[in-house]
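User: Sequence recovery, please. Input:
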């Protein structure tokens, strides 16, 4: 069938020979892997932050969340050049004529709308969030979370629809392994690998200390901030500077306890101190390790006579008035861990006010958003 006039310009343009299935499949596989890592680590991060009743996030291994969230953000950034290249390879197919040849074909083509739209939305909204730029009215975590299911579902359909093509063009017996396009394809894929590598080095230093000097796109670098630790929300930004420095501050431990506590900073400092090396691992992908010293939460629970004993869960509340991150939960397995601390010191000095002075929560294997600063109250239930 002839191409209709409005689409003829697409045909007339001289076209690279690389708009072909083997190149599309190879780039597609890399992109599929990156998207899958993003999806799995993203769903995990969501479960940790909003745990359903069947889900309990353990305190060990202490650095697991740091690695999984680091991977999430690195794979997200690396998928940008992969996605753009993939779209360039296949765009002539988007103008295919006739647009639909069968019901199955219609369904497969329709699934490209959520796949391409979702892929672009996920990478762009993720990038904007890391840059803390919100040119929209929706709540980022909710939108990013739900669109992930749509995108990943469309990816599964797409892989199913393209499985045979992919196998025929990538498998060992595929004639296109040695076709005349080999030099061009190598150049494109080599260039893409180099670009993805550059993106990797530009962001990985967010979380991998030795790479931090190369991390030109990193929003927060290890070592950069008071006491060698980046700050996401400053005391001024949170509106807590005055209260933090008020000597009448007391830590309150209440709820289901036999002996409610009200402890001054001096009281806390006089208790048995524990030191642990633990990272702050922000959901935005940056992370830095610190040496934290303070009172183990389980010591506080014991002193307060928590009625649930070892099975107590705790809500930590900040004296910050508003803000989404003024509260967090500690589940019972985290509360039992000796390194889940109400920290008073970072790297051998009293906490900087931007790190949560007079006291902050820090625990192994917790997302940064759950490491509550400027703590006022532990509520036991
Ligand atoms: N009260 C309170 N605690 C908070 C936050 C906040 O906005 N308010 N931000 C959280 C986030 S998102 C991160 S990543 C860590 C950062 O800790 P840092 O500034 O000491 O590096 O603190 C967490 N604790
Ligand atoms: Mo964070």
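Assistant: Recovered sequence (381 residues):
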């Amino acid at each position: 069938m002839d191409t209709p006039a409005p689409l003829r310009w697409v045909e007339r343009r001289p076209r690279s020979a690389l708009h072909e299935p083997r190149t599309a499949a190879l780039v597609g596989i890399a992109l599929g892997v990156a998207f899958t890592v993003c999806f799995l680590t993203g769903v995990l991060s969501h479960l940790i932050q909003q745990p359903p009743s069947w889900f309990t996030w353990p305190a060990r291994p202490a650095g697991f969340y740091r690695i999984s969230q680091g991977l999430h953000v690195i794979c997200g950034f690396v998928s940008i050049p992969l996605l753009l290249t993939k779209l360039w390879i296949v765009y002539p197919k988007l103008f295919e004529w006739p647009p639909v040849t069968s019901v199955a074909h219609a369904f497969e083509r329709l699934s490209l709308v959520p796949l391409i739209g979702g892929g672009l939305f996920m990478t762009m909204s993720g990038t904007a969030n890391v840059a803390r730029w919100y040119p929209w009215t929706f709540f980022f975590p909710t939108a990013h979370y739900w669109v992930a299911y749509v995108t990943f579902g469309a990816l599964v359909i797409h892989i199913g629809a393209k499985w045979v093509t992919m196998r025929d063009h990538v498998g060992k017996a595929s004639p296109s392994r040695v076709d005349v396009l080999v030099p061009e394809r190598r150049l494109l894929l080599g260039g893409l690998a180099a670009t993805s590598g550059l993106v990797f080095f530009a962001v990985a230093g967010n979380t991998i200390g030795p790479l931090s000097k190369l991390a030109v796109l990193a929003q927060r670098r290890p070592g950069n901030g008071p006491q060698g630790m980046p700050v996401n929300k400053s005391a001024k930004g949170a509106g807590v500077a005055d209260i933090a420095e008020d000597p009448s501050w007391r830590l309150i431990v209440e709820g289901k306890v036999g002996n409610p506590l009200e402890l001054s900073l001096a009281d806390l400092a006089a208790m048995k101190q524990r030191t642990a090396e633990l990272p702050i691992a922000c959901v935005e992908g940056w992370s830095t390790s610190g040496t934290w010293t303070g009172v183990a939460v389980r010591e506080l629970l014991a002193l307060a006579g928590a009625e649930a004993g070892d099975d107590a869960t705790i809500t930590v509340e900040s004296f910050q008035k508003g803000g989404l991150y003024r509260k967090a939960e500690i589940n019972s397995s985290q509360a039992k861990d000796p390194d889940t601390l109400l920290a008073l010191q970072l790297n051998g000095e009293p906490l900087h006010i931007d790190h949560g002075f007079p006291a902050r929560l820090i625990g192994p294997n917790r997302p940064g958003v759950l490491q509550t600063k400027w703590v006022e109250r532990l509520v036991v239930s």
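The CA atoms of residues 313 and 332 lie 5 Å apart.
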